[in-house]
């Protein structure tokens, strides 16, 4: 998943590190006298008896019984307190490369600009403590820039636990992106997390769609509410909600026909579904492999009918990761899950920190 972006980000990480190391190496060492007073560092036991050194002329021996800072102590403090003041030109080159890498990997332009601005703001013109590892500074700055655009994510279990039963989740999106499979995967995920589920077969438009969702649901032991092909999807989903109420089911998952935001009749149909079903959560499903197109569609869909969260499918086939990085910041709604394969288990709750750590090759 996102291998191209991952490899390139890790190269950029080394570039930033070597540039900053160069600046840090060229800077004069910061003063250490005051810090040395505060720090207690165990000194290695001497291998032979040490005769106390007489004070160097002009220097007072400490009169409070404390040991005078030694060279060894000073060195340790120096490493710990090492600071660097970065100027724009010190990181201009890796910043430019980062910008190119993000754009080449389908990260949307405004999102790329935001990441670069965050990096610049966090690094340039400030004294940065770099301790013994410049790499730590680079990784934490990159991590916070990426997490800044990915937002907080949304834990579906917490969301469901916070709502009245039955919690109604409506899945929408364009044709063939993996919506029906996603409904089945989410059904299994919720069952495994202790919630009971019913599926409403609201795609009455595409030939074979009802049978498709029914087959998935039967395999997973989930009840499906269905009408015949061509029926009004609002009526099907209304029935699914009634069934859930009558049988104390926790969650209704509503499949719907794929549609584009500019197809007026299908969008009106979706409006009707919303009025009748009153969903707690509208989930827009698109495929990560569509890159920037998926981001634009998600944004337009949100503006046309409103979206609460996004699922990106086929992340397993996407080397770039641009849609996953861009969609939450562009649409202003969290990513709920990534689809990572064709099996029912191939769904991953989207945790921004985990994804960023994976991209940076850093487990901390
Ligand atoms: N590799 C991969 N394939 C997926 C993923 N999710 C779905 N698919 C596949 O994508 C294809 C389309 O999935 P569907 O669930 O039928 O798509 P849909 O959006 O419901 O299609 P419509 O009903 O036409 O809107 C199927 O072959 C799925 O197995 C995923 O995360 N990874």
TrEMBL record:
Keyword Glycoprotein among UniProt keywords: no
Gene Ontology MF, one: GTPase activity
Keywords: Cell membrane, Cytoplasm, GTP-binding, Hydrolase, Membrane, Nucleotide-binding, Receptor
GO biological process, one term: protein targeting to membrane
Pfam families (UniProt xref): SRP54, SRP54_N
Keyword Transmembrane helix included in the entry's annotation: no
Pro residues: compositionally biased ranges: 46-55
Residue positions binding GTP: 173-180, 255-259, 313-316
GO CC term (a single one): cytoplasm
Location in the cell: Cell membrane; Cytoplasm
Catalytic activity of the protein: GTP + H2O = GDP + phosphate + H(+)
Annotated stretches, region: Disordered: 17-68
Mode of membrane association: Peripheral membrane protein
PROSITE patterns in UniProt: SRP54
EC assignment: 3.6.5.4
Ranges for domain SRP54-type proteins GTP-binding: 334-347
Entry similarity comment: Belongs to the GTP-binding SRP family. FtsY subfamily.
Entry function: Involved in targeting and insertion of nascent membrane proteins into the cytoplasmic membrane. Acts as a receptor for the complex formed by the signal recognition particle (SRP) and the ribosome-nascent chain (RNC).
Subunit structure: Part of the signal recognition particle protein translocation system, which is composed of SRP and FtsY.
NCBIfam families in the cross-refs: ftsY
Protein's name in the database: Signal recognition particle receptor FtsY
């Amino acid at each position: 998943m996102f291998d191209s972006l991952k490899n390139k980000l890790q190269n950029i990480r080394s570039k930033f590190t070597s540039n900053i190391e160069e600046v840090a190496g060229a800077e004069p060492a910061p003063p250490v006298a005051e810090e040395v007073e505060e720090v207690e560092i165990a000194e290695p036991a001497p291998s032979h008896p040490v005769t106390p050194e007489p004070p160097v002329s002009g220097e007072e021996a400490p009169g409070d019984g404390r040991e005078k800072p030694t060279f060894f102590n000073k060195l340790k403090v120096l490493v710990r307190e090492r600071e660097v003041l970065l100027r724009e030109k010190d990181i201009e080159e890796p910043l430019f490369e980062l910008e190119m890498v993000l754009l080449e990997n389908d990260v949307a332009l405004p999102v790329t600009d935001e990441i670069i601005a965050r990096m610049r703001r966090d690094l340039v013109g400030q004294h940065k403590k770099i301790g013994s590892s410049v790499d730590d500074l680079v990784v934490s700055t990159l991590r916070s820039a990426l997490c800044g655009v990915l937002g907080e994510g949304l834990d579906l279990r917490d969301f469901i636990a916070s709502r009245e039963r039955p919690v109604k989740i409506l899945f929408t999106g364009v044709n063939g992106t993996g919506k029906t499979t996603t409904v089945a995967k989410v059904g299994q995920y919720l069952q495994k997390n202790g919630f009971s589920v019913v599926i409403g077969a609201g795609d009455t438009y595409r030939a074979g769609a009802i049978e498709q969702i029914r087959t998935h649901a039967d395999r997973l032991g989930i009840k499906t509410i269905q009408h015949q092909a061509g029926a009004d999807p609002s009526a099907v989903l209304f029935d699914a909600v009634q069934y859930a109420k009558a049988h104390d089911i926790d969650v209704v998952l509503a499949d719907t026909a794929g549609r584009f935001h500019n197809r007026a009749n299908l969008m009106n149909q979706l409006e009707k579904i919303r009025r009748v079903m009153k969903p707690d959560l509208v989930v827009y499903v698109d495929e990560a492999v569509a890159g920037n197109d998926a981001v634009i569609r998600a944004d337009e869909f949100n503006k046309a009918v409103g979206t609460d969260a996004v699922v990106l499918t086929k992340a397993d086939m996407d080397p770039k990761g641009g849609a996953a990085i861009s969609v939450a910041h562009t649409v202003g709604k969290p990513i709920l899950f990534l689809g990572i394969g064709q099996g029912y288990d191939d769904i991953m709750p989207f945790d921004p920190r985990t994804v960023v750590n994976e991209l940076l090759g850093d487990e901390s």
